[in-house]
Structure formats: structure tokens, C-alpha cells
Amino acid sequence: MKHIILDCDPGHDDAINIIIATAKSDIFNVLGITTVGGNVEVEKNTLNALKVLELLNSDIPVYKGQSRPLVKEIEIATEIHGDSGMDGPILPDPNRKEEVLHAVDFIIETVKNSKEKVTLVPTGPLTNIAMALIKDPSIKNNIEEIVLMGGGTFGNWTPAAEFNIFVDAEAAEVVFTSGIPLAVFGLDVTHQVIATDDIVDRVGEIDNEVAEFVKELLIFFGQTYKDFFGINGGPIHDACTCMYLLNPDMFTMEEVNITIETKGEATYGMTVVDLLKTTGKKENTKFATGVDQERFWDTFMDTLTLFNK
Ligand code: BDR
Ligand code: CA
What we know:
Strand content: 15-25%
Number of helices: 12
Helix content: 25-40%
Number of strands: 12
Largest sheet: 8 strands, mixed
Bound molecules: beta-D-ribofuranose, calcium ion
Strand order of the largest sheet: 3-2-1-4-5-6-12-9
CATH topology: Inosine-uridine Nucleoside N-ribohydrolase, Chain A
Distance between the termini: 24 Å
Order of helices and strands: EHEHEHHEHEHHEHEHHEHEEEEH
Number of domains: 1
CATH architecture: Alpha-Beta Complex
Structural class: alpha/beta
């Protein structure tokens, strides 16, 4: 059993990751979902998390976190995710609210008090995680691993930087220099799992309301990726994290050093990935470079089928 906290900014692909974690309740004990300002404002991301959980009939608690990055102002991605942060499908307003406790304090208290080590799964800007590590560095000892979506050897928000890292590079630097084991799913691998039309059709053949919701997410997300990037579908970036935790051997991982660029004018938020070990710096990350696509999509479809009545 993996004891995990999903730290996210739903977000189409964040929502899909929540669905995978919830579906595989034999593997994942989701201790809580924490939200952060990212794709849209933290209030909207929090509402989206609650809506998804209601669809899933799940009572996993939700904790609202940081509304803005450590140092700079927030930058959001309505071009990709729409004004609500999860445009496309329409879900009813949820019957419950987020918990009173702040996400950063939830992370600290939960990690400290857990009998088993906790795996953190961030799929948005790393602000909450960095804040927790700054506020109480002792939690490091009880974190099994941080499995995150972010970065890559190319960018999608600037030519050099991926969105999650760009939004809060200072927070990313705190995480990447923490000494905690990291597994990093950047654009190199997430652009190998693009939900093209044939994938959307396969999801459409699964006869349950969660799969129907995922199909609508993929249609909206796929269209913005076509319009914005000229790609033939939406990469379901964030889902790589829980898919990895389900089947680590599905991915090719390289032990590398990653340094976060926080000063460069054209390169702010870049993850400098030392694939050829040119710096001699100690490896601090397992970095995903490949995925068995057939296995990935088969597992994805099987997981959605678990919601059949
Ligand atoms: C990341 O940015 C967001 O738009 C997605 O949810 C994902 O976490 C991809 O760059
Ligand atoms: Ca995200």
C-alpha cells in the first residue's frame, strides 16, 4: 500500500490523476488532496478537486494551499484549461467544502504523524511542498519519495521552462535541493502519452460516468493543445505520476542531476537535466525518459473500467 498526498491544481490532467489514485484503492491510500494556485486560482482548483471527488463518491479530504508562488506573482494557464481550470465537462457544485486546515499544515502534520512513510505526489507548482519543507524540515525523514510532474529538457511555457516549474522556480529549487528521493516526470515523457483521437475513442467505449467525464476532459484539453501548440491531442502529463507508482517498470528512468534555473532572463524555471553527466554533480533525481505506451494506455483503460457498476 502506498500512502500518498496528491498536491495539485486541477486541471484536466490533475483530475485524471485523482481518478486513477481513487480507482486503485487496493494500491493507494490517499491521505488527502492539497491544492495550490497554478492552472487557475487556488479557489477554483480547490472547487474542481471537490467536484471530481463528488463524482467519484469519495470522501477524501481536500485542503486549500498557497494562492501564489514563494517570490513572484502567480501566472495562470486559462489558455489551456479554460476559465474554470477544468472547462469542458459540467459537474454539479459539490455538497462539501474543503477542510479548515491549511494544506501546508496538513502536509506537515500528516507526514509527521504517519506510522508509514508518505509519498508526496505534486502535479502543480511546488509552492505547498516547499513551504512545508521550509516550515518543518524534519518531515523529510518520513517522506518516502516525491513523485512529481514538472520540467523536462524542453519547455512549454517558455522555450526553456515547463509550466509547473516556471510558475514557482524558487519552490522547485527548495524541493530539488532537499535530498529527498525524487522521481520526475517532465515533458520528455509526458509528450509520449498524448490522448490522440483513437485514445479518446477507446475511453468513449467504456460505459460508466467517470469514463464519460474523462472523455469530455480529453476532448477539451486535446482541442486547446491543438490550438495552442499544434499537437494532435492533450498529453496527460500528471497521470504519469500515479501510473508510475502503479507500475514503475513501465517507465525508463535515468539517475541524473537536475538544477533549477532561477536567475536566467530567458531560462527562468528551466530544469537543467545533466543527462550526459557533464557537471560531475551528484545525481538528485530519477528522471523519466521513456514509457511503454501500449502498457500505459491498456492500464489506463483497465483503471477506468473499474468504475463499471
Ligand atoms: C503541467 O501544467 C499544467 O497545465 C498541467 O496540469 C500539468 O501539471 C504541464 O506542463
Ligand atoms: Ca497540474
